[in-house]
Amino acid sequence: MSQTVKAVISRSKDADVELVDIVIPDPGPGEAVVKVQACGVCHTDLHYKQGGINDEFPFLLGHEAAGVVEAVGEGVTNVKPGDYVVLNWRAVCGQCRACLKGEPWYCFDTANATQKMTLTDGTELTPALGIGAFAEKTLVAAGQCTIVDEKAEPAVAGLLGCGLMAGLGAALNTGQVKRGESVAVIGLGGVGMAAVAGAVLAGASKVVAVDRDERKLTKALELGATHTVHSTDDTVVKQIQEICDGFGADVVVDAVGRAETFQQAFEARDLAGRVVLVGVPTPDMVWETPLIEIFSRGGAIKSSWYGDCLPSRDFPMLVDLYLQGRLPLDAFVTEKIALGDVEAAFDKMAKGDVLRSVVELEG
């Protein structure tokens, strides 16, 4: 039997979000209903609100979530009612060409719930990244549920569902940072800060944090960065090179996703180094550089999709590292808010006042 719950939606482009009643159907084959305990306010949700993803309004926002499985549909074997899970938007299929060649983190046919959640008048909702977790409960594909240690607080664990995983994975999975290597991270939003934490976790000898906001540079030092560079200075590349023994960093992560920051990342790496693009560019952005420059520098230029993560592998491992005190995920939770405070959280995000606001729900 379907149930009605409170949720936050975006009804039209740039309109303030609304707290409304929505209808959650019983889970069908391959689906699960999850009682949401916490959900981070991610910049991707703001992109949905602004119409920057697509125009399939109304959107059910929220996707960085942790909660407890309430019910599962026919054929579900990976989770059961009562399991504590982090939600992910890469529910691997196991059958596409990426999965079949042993690279499921690139799965090209990830799953979402088949049924639609709706407004009480029957209007179908588009869940953000196939999740829609600014809600008391949500309907997802069962493969979007990853069981983790229940000792991890939901407000912390849920953040692995998107932004933190993207940044950590950019360093650990895509950049493959090794012990003793040097790393520079350009852009210190939630993703960039997580890339700093990932580089520290990997054992990088030098971690250079680059941003224009002094507050963020200070925070990066707290997370383990060894050096900072103010990005308004026109000598950013030179400073990174000088910090890294005059040659440049072994790995440079662009967590902004603009042509100018990507150019800085390209120029600031050492010969045969790796450039990782994890910041998401807009469709109109173009990067132009002489082809000989790409050839002569060697190394690799990589884009990082969701931190090239495999949720079933990475989420439990990162939660374990957090519980061991080796990964400071608590540092990313700036404030805990109620469902009705999401619009205000977007304003704080736009001003750079928070790393993450996290919606907490009762129960």
From TrEMBL:
EC nos: 1.1.1.306
SUPFAM superfamilies linked: GroES-like, NAD(P)-binding Rossmann-fold domains
Root EC class: oxidoreductase
Keywords, in A-Z order: Heme, Iron, Metal-binding, Oxidoreductase, Zinc
Molecular function, one GO term: heme binding
Gene3D superfamilies with a match to the protein in the record: Medium-chain alcohol dehydrogenases, catalytic domain, NAD(P)-binding Rossmann-like Domain
Keyword Cell membrane applies: no
Superkingdom in the source lineage: Bacteria
Cofactors: Zn(2+)
Location of the Cytochrome c domain: 25-176
Keyword S-adenosyl-L-methionine: no
Pfam name, any one: ADH_zinc_N
Record SMART domains: PKS_ER
Record family assignment: Belongs to the zinc-containing alcohol dehydrogenase family.
Record protein name field: Formaldehyde dehydrogenase MscR, NAD/mycothiol-dependent / S-nitrosomycothiol reductase MscR
Native source species: Luteococcus japonicus LSP_Lj1
